[in-house]
Amino acid sequence: MRQLVVLGCPGQRRVELFTAAARAAGLPAPAVLPWSELLRGRYELQPGAVVRIDSPGEDPEADRLLRGPALGAGYAATRVEGGPAWYAGLTAALRELASRPGVRLLGDPAEIAVMFDKRRTHALLAAAGVPVPPALDGEPVGGYRELRERLAAAGLHRVFLKPAHGSSASGVVALEFGPRGQVQATTSVELTPAGLFNSLTVRRYRSTAEVAELVDRLAPEGLHVERWVPKAGQGGRSADLRVVVIGGRATHVVVRTSRHPMTNLHLGGQRGETELVRAAAGDAWPRLLATAEAAAECFPASPMVGVDLLPVSGWRRALVGEVNAFGDLLPNLTGLPDGPAAGLDTYAAQLRSPAYAEVAHRPDAHRPDAHRQGRGELREAEGERPRDRADEGQLHVDATWR
Amino acid sequence: MAISRHIEEFHGLPVTDFRAAADDGKLPQPAATAWRIALDYDDEIGFAEVWERFLETVAVEQVTAVVIGSWFTDEPDTLTEPLAAVLASADRLPALRALFVGDITYEQCEISWLQMCDVTAVLETFPALEELVVRGASGDWDGAGGLALKPVKHERLKALRFEAGGLPGAVVRSVAASDFPALEKLELWLGVGNYGGDWTMEDLAPFLSGANLPALRHLGLQNAEQQDRIAALAAQAPIVPRLTGLALSMGALTDEGAAALLEGQPLTHLKTLDLHHHYLTEGMQQRLREALPGVELDLSDQEDPNDNWRYVAISE
Q1: Do B107 and A236 touch (CB under 8 A)?
Q2: Of chain B residues 102-121, which have a CB less than 8 A from chain A?
Q3: Whether the Cβ atoms of residue A262 and residue A202 lie closer than 8 Å to each other
Q4: How far is the C-alpha of B70 from the C-alpha of B47, rounded, in Å?
Q5: What does the radius of gyration of chain A's CA atoms come to, in whole angstroms?
Q6: Which positions in chain B touch A176 (Cβ < 8 Å)?
Q7: Rounded mean pLDDT of chain A?
Q8: CB atoms within 10 A of CB B198
Q9: Partner of B283 at 20 to 30 A CA spacing, among A243, A261, B36, B246?
Q10: Which of residues B70 and A395 earns the better pLDDT score?
Q11: With contact defined as beta carbons under 8 Å apart, do A190 and A204 qualify?
Q12: pLDDT tens digits, residue range A201-244?
């Protein structure tokens, strides 16, 4: 069997959860290649290793290696700036990894590079006919004055500014202009003389001077500017959907709600009720999932993507806000009951998906603790697939996944 | 805080979005629902066209309640023309008893940026109207327009609410100068000066006296930074003994205002006292509960009493 390696951050949640899922499935614990080692270029891989690419986000050292040189003495983990350096370092390291002879990647450096450039992602989705909010196209925005002019020319009064290489709402600004020249920016960015810092508090800037400074500092690192579409809500809170698409199928859905326009959990967002969304969407529910799957289709070499859907028109349709290469950190969330990952968390589902067939070879298919750790749900799911079960030695890689 | 939820019930009826229901082929009985007529953010058609479709599709002569949602798409626009379209079809809506103007969330447009117009004609054109809610107050991109009301006489209106991040003093004065012999429930979200709320304490005096509001049973003077002063006035106000409901909520009410309420005239006759979104200490909340045992007291949404910055619930 080929060795499974996880590129990630040892001891952190993503690696731990994936390892637990592998163990529960009766597989050996995967080896871990720390992101910081990858970035330093000091690593060896067994010939034939299969590498699952996970996020560098939980590795403080990786962040310092990626952004430290660009930010110099001003470096801090909470700094917003440094996106281009982070992006260049990350993509170069993945390309180098891909070039190692005999190494096979679960994930594609080129596609990951697109997903970590919101402008390219938007363009790719739009070209494929996937619904996305209208965006400013053309040359990058140079600063606030230019942004105002271009928004006015485009008739846009409410937009999201997203750092092209940002993640987790870092640097994201919801910007709106009122009828009497008012401007209002809603963001978790703290504007200080020492730079821009991510905070856990969503705040509002209402003076032109502050908003201009904010935009002028964000713009040089690349901004994606798209219309703030009015999201549907749940229980009086703004809502969006994270849809995990594994092997082309929308398997996991989480509703995220917030009193702020950005729904990220670290900014006070909460998990909402998926059942209420299904009820609100009614006949449109399959269309919402199909939209997420259509977005994922633009990344055919990615075994898993996390698609952020912006529900509009009272949950009757959705636009794609983002596609996340590492969008599967959703602990304790089991798959849609009518999908191929029913009862499985995102990691167990990936292990069962076609992309993992080669490494999800289970030497001891009937080890009892594999079932016990699978918490009954796994057993139940297996029970529905008697033919897979007879498929000795394979971890129920579902031939009918699609 | 901001308005983040579409209304789901109005005039005692569930709200149905007309276009969603029409698309699904599931139109309810005309009188069994409040009909929401609204544009989607990326519509190519205008409000008048959707309104016309509503008139043609539903037996509107039976419709009792209408909710006007967003009347604009990408580019916010004034209410003037959409409202004119509604008023022009008044003769086709003989059963209309309730109208909600502006069921719009902050995801669509901030309340204080909704571009409003003179709404006097609503009351003039629908003499049988019993309930009117108007949300928003701003002028247009050129600084023209804005929410306006001329003093008006209306025999049937029972419930009136203006929701604003800043309610113009002229509108407050016109409400006071109007003749509403049947008005039982009046709610004013007063808001703040920064968002156009240039009302004054003197403007509120007629409501606290109630001399010109013979049927009034519920008074809401809400969403004000000066909520303490309003509470102190309410504590002595001649109208209060005949009220069943009093709302001093959504504002910057502190222990000072609540103490004034406790020291003033009796409030134990009230069915409801709405103080939600307040800056009261736990101790003061307890005093209120003990002093008003039979009153349904809404003390939800406590803000930090020690916060030096005190905000109203709805401003921008």
Answers
A1: no
A2: 105, 107-110, 112-113, 115
A3: yes
A4: 8
A5: 22
A6: 110, 113
A7: 89
A8: 15
A9: B246
A10: B70
A11: no
A12: 999 999 999 999 999 999 999 999 999 999 998 888 999 999 99
The answer to whether the Cβ–Cβ distance between B113 and A313 falls below 8 Å is: no
CB contact under 8 A, A236 and B1: no
- DSSP E strand boundaries for A49-182: 50-53, 104-106, 158-163, 173-177
Give the confidence band of A281 by pLDDT, cuts at 50, 70, 90: very high
pLDDT value of position A361 = 56
Scanning A139-168 for CB atoms below 8 A from B yields 155-158
Look at residue A397 in the predicted model and tell me its pLDDT: 52
Percentage with pLDDT > 90 across chain A: 77
A55 close to A346: Cβ distance less than 8 angstroms = no
Say which residue the tokens 């350096």 belong to: A85
Q: Give the span between the Cα atoms of B58 and B32, in whole angstroms.
A: 12
Min Cα distance B164 → chain A (Å) is 15
> If DSSP codes are grouped into helix, strand and coil, which group holds residue A388?
helix
Residue in B20, B108, B140 closest to A316 by CB: B20
Classify strands A317-324 and A304-312 as parallel, antiparallel or unpaired: antiparallel
Provide the shortest C-alpha distance from residue A140 to chain B (in Å).
23
Per-residue pLDDT of A157-195, as tens digits, reads 999 999 999 988 899 999 999 888 889 999 999 999 999
Q: What is the pLDDT of residues A194-208, one digit of tens each?
A: 999 999 999 999 999
State both tokens at A369.
């603790």
What pLDDT, in 10s, does the model give residues B188-224? 999 999 889 999 999 999 999 999 999 999 999 999 9
B304 touches chain A (CB under 8 A): no
b or e along A264-280 (b: 16 or more beta carbons within 10 Å of the residue's beta carbon)? Answer: beebbbeebebeebbeb
Residues with Cβ within 8 Å of residue B56, at least 6 apart in sequence: none
A178 touches chain B (CB under 8 A): yes
B47 CB neighbour count, 10 Å cutoff? 24
Interatomic CA distance for residues B30 and B55, integer angstroms: 11
Q: Which among B40, B107, B113 is the nearest to A238, CB-wise?
A: B107
The distance from CA A265 to its chain's CA centroid, rounded to whole angstroms, is 13
A158, A202, A312: best to mutate for the B interface, most B CBs within 10 A: A158
Asked if A231's CB is within 8 angstroms of B107's CB, the reply is yes
How do residues A118-153 score in pLDDT, each as one tens digit?
999 999 999 999 999 999 988 999 999 999 999 999
Residues 6+ apart with CB under 8 A from B212: B176, B179, B206
Task: Evaluate if residue A392 carries a pLDDT over 90.
Answer: no
ipTM: 0.87
Residue A124, φ and ψ in degrees, nearest 5: -65, -45
Q: What is the CA radius of gyration of chain B?
A: 20
pLDDT confidence of residue A378? 33
Is residue A229 within 8 angstroms of chain B, CB to CB? yes
Task: Report the range of poorest mean pLDDT among A98-102, B72-76, B220-224, B239-243.
Answer: B72-76
Q: Is-contact A113 A98, C-beta < 8 A? A: no
Do residue A179 and residue B108 have CB atoms under 8 angstroms apart? Answer: no
Tokens of A111: 């596609």
